[in-house]
Design brief:
Layout: H1 2-8, H2 11-46, H3 48-55, H4 61-66, H5 69-101
Helix pairs in contact: 2-5
Length: 103
Amino acid sequence: MIEKLNILFTKKQLSKLYIILFASILATFFEIIGIGSIPVFAMLIIDVESLINNISSYISIDLINEIDRKTLQITGAILLVSIFLFKNLYLFFLEKLQKLFCP
């Protein structure tokens, strides 16, 4: 299969293809993280106690218990917006990279 790619593309084109492929796979992981953060944020708004019970094995509960509910929700909202902002900026630059490599 790779031998067929060597016939079709030059080495420079192949390196660009691999860069775009790797960047696209990374974009997929960012998409998954973005989509997965929505239910966590919804759970943070609706039922904080259930969220604490579900993630208690991963992080310290004492840290979450010290923060009041409103501050926790605002922090979650800022984190959610930051995740989507970073993801969309990455996708924007990936689109520019694809336009640069494949005019």
